[in-house]
Design brief:
Elements (H helix, E strand, L loop, with lengths): L1 E4 L3 H9 L6 E6 L12 H9 L3 H4 L1 E10 L4 E5 L1 H6 L2 H12 L9 H22 L4 E2 L4 E6 L1 H5 L3 H6 L2 E5 L5 E2 L7 H19 L18 H17 L1
Antiparallel strand pairs: 1-6, 2-3, 3-4, 5-8, 6-7
Helix pairs in contact: 5-9, 6-9
Length: about 240
């Protein structure tokens, strides 16, 4: 059984401890872990983003565990490892989970899996665009699936098991206005591009950088974050 999880570290460790046998990928999206409506943490979060791919891509891998078919063991990678994954290593890191390290082009079950995840990300992107003023600061993205079904040859059931969930909304804010959460959307779009690159075999090419979306200027959400903090203070 496998899963891709954008999870808080504690949740990721719990999944492993329960012996569910899931592979877990934890990824942070800029505008998710990158912001909270609290003063004093802006510099810390900006520094974390700059040290990972969050600043460049709008998302980063925050840890994962992958089943190694050669050794028969689960390989675990924590959030500190994820912070070291650069743009040039992103394709390889995602391929470790989705395609046993094969960077494409993908076919068969691996290709079907990535196609399904991309489809769900497209639906998520369309939904987010219909939610102006909503800021999903501190939330995470969870993707999970039952790979045992694929191993048993039940491809249709396997693809039905693929799920994508937004989780962790403690720092969600409705800031008003007509703009969608462009920081979140940037990460969702670029994750799609990397997965599409795996499918078609060009994710590791230098040309992928020409296809990626640049993160939006942070000044607007910096101001929104400050206003959210001030409103929180007034409500206490």
């Amino acid at each position: 059984r496998q899963g891709v999880a954008v999870l808080p570290p504690a949740r990721s460790e719990i999944l492993g401890a329960r012996g569910l046998g899931w592979e877990c990928v934890k990824a942070g999206l800029l505008g998710l872990e990158g912001r909270v409506p609290a003063a004093g943490r802006e510099a810390q979060l900006a520094r974390k983003a700059a040290q990972s791919t969050s600043a460049a891509l709008g998302f980063r891998i925050c840890g994962m565990q992958c089943y190694d078919r050669m050794s028969g063991e689960v390989q675990r990678y924590d959030k500190y490892w994820g912070q070291q994954v650069g743009v040039d290593a992103m394709s390889k890191s995602l391929a470790m989970f989705f395609a046993d390290g094969h960077e494409g082009p993908l076919s068969g079950v691996c290709g079907d899996l990535v196609e399904e995840v991309v489809r769900k990300l497209q639906l998520l992107e369309a939904t987010l665009r219909q939610l102006p003023g909503m800021r999903f600061w501190g939330s995470s993205l969870l993707i999970f699936f039952d790979a045992a079904l694929a191993e048993e040859g039940h491809t249709e059931a396997f693809l039905r098991s693929v799920q994508l969930k937004m989780i962790d909304f403690a720092n969600f804010e409705n800031v008003g206005g007509e703009l969608s959460d462009e920081e979140y959307l940037c990460g969702v779009r670029n994750l799609q591009i990397f997965l599409r690159g795996l499918l078609e075999g060009w994710a590791s090419d230098s040309s992928i950088e020409t296809k990626l979306s640049a993160p939006p200027c942070p000044k607007l959400q910096d101001l929104e974050q400050q206003h959210a903090f001030e409103a929180l203070q007034r409500s206490r």
